[in-house]
């Protein structure tokens, strides 16, 4: 792991310092780059909200070999840790061939027994690189941006499906990207009616909305026929001044119940952070920036190493909190809840 991080630090020089504590302070406002928007407070809030949560250690029980298997819409995954969709590595992370980045990210995630997600860069040829990565991995999830007209969204879903994608969605938190609006893109929030139409493009596949931070928005997604939401502030990269994901997740999980699958992301930097999000109500998590370190430090093997390491840490933490499998993780393991 040390060699991986040293190599990544060298290759990401000027973009990411791979800080001891990756909480968005050193890279505040560095966008394009690895930071959070404006002051970086939303990135930092993700990190601090997770750090504030403490776990009840439990050692008198029978859970000695916890099971981390996760069922995601018919895919049986070895771990509840997937990669966050990430586009634009050259402007955000450091020089690299775009196709090489996407292939390494999805290949490493798949080799760790998980499922790879692709994001949506502005340029079509880069989107196609994500599709090629899905093709190589054999499966994947497509997250389109909310700034195209519906014909273009449908086209992107179809390209993804042709490549082998099994789930489709949109990072709706991209609705505030003003420079795209000034370029003439129809960027903006979506009504329930508009989401119902987008949902109908792939009627027999799961439909995911990423970037939900309130219970109210979550319930509107449910009304639109959404199958899965990602509670996320885009790693703090869209709106400055949001709470941390761990602060809003319990209320959203309570409102949604079992009506949709809830995922969460933001500042996951260990398997203990994964356990915390699961105990707060998520079924699985996405990891962003650390998997860029994986790609730059060790290609697909680097990504696999990081997911494997977090999964091992999750197992260890499940043993020490007395959770035999993922369904056994709930708020009873959280101190003070
Ligand atoms: C370089 C970079 C590019 C990203 N590109 C996308 C994208 O294209 N689509 C998307 O939904 N999210 C994108 N994200 C957000 C991630 O999917 C994820 O929500 C976030 O990074 C999680 O926070 P973390 O990096 O602290 O783990 C990007 C994040 C980074 C760091």
**SSE topology string:** HHEEEHHEHEHEHHEHEHEHEH
In percent, how helical is the residue content? 40-55%
Task: Please outline the major beta sheet.
Answer: 8 strands, parallel
Per DSSP, the total helix count is 12
What is the name of the CATH class? Alpha Beta
Please state how the strands of the largest beta sheet are arranged side by side: 3-10-9-8-7-6-5-4
Q: What is the average of the pLDDT values? A: 96
Low-confidence stretches: none
Shape: globular
Structural class: alpha/beta
CATH homologous superfamily placement: Aldolase class I
Describe the SSE topology:
Blueprint: H1 2-11, H2 41-51, E1 70-72, E2 75-77, E3 81-83, H3 89-92, H4 98-111, E4 117-118, H5 124-137, E5 141-144, H6 150-163, E6 167-171, H7 178-182, H8 192-199, E7 207-212, H9 215-223, E8 228-231, H10 245-256, E9 261-265, H11 271-279, E10 284-287, H12 289-321
Parallel strand pairs: 3-10, 4-5, 5-6, 6-7, 7-8, 8-9, 9-10
Antiparallel strand pairs: 1-2
Bound molecules: flavin mononucleotide (FMN).
């Amino acid at each position: 792991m040390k060699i991986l991080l040293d190599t990544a630090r060298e290759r990401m020089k000027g973009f990411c310092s791979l800080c001891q504590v990756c909480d968005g302070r050193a890279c505040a406002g560095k966008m394009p780059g690895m930071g959070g928007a404006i002051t970086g407070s939303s990135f930092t809030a993700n990190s601090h909200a997770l750090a504030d949560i403490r776990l009840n250690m439990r050692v008198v029980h029978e859970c000695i070999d916890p099971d981390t298997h996760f069922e995601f819409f018919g895919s049986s995954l070895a771990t509840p840790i997937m990669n966050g969709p990430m586009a634009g590595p050259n402007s955000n992370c450091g020089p690299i061939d775009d196709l090489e980045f996407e292939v390494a990210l999805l290949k490493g995630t798949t080799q760790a027994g998980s499922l790879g997600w692709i994001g949506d860069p502005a340029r079509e040829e880069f989107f196609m690189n994500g599709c090629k990565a899905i093709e190589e991995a054999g499966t994947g999830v497509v997250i389109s941006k909310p700034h195209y007209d519906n014909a273009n969204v449908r086209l992107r879903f179809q390209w993804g499906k042709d490549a082998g994608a099994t789930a489709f969605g949109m990072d709706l938190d991209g609705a505030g990207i003003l420079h795209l609006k000034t370029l003439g893109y129809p960027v903006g929030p979506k009504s329930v009616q508009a989401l119902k139409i987008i949902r109908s493009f792939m009627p027999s596949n799961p439909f995911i909305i990423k970037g939900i931070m309130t219970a109210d928005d979550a319930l509107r997604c449910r009304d639109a026929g959404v199958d899965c939401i990602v509670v996320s502030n885009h790693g703090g990269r869209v709106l400055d001044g949001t709470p941390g994901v761990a602060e809003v997740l319990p209320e959203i999980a309570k409102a949604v119940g079992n009506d949709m699958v809830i995922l969460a992301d933001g500042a996951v930097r260990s398997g203990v952070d994964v356990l915390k999000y699961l105990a707060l109500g998520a079924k699985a998590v996405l990891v962003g920036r650390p998997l860029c370190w994986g790609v730059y430090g060790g290609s697909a093997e680097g990504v696999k190493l990081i997911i494997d390491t977090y999964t091992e840490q999750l197992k260890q933490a499940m043993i020490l909190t007395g959770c035999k499998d993922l369904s056994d993780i709930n708020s009873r393991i959280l101190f003070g809840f």
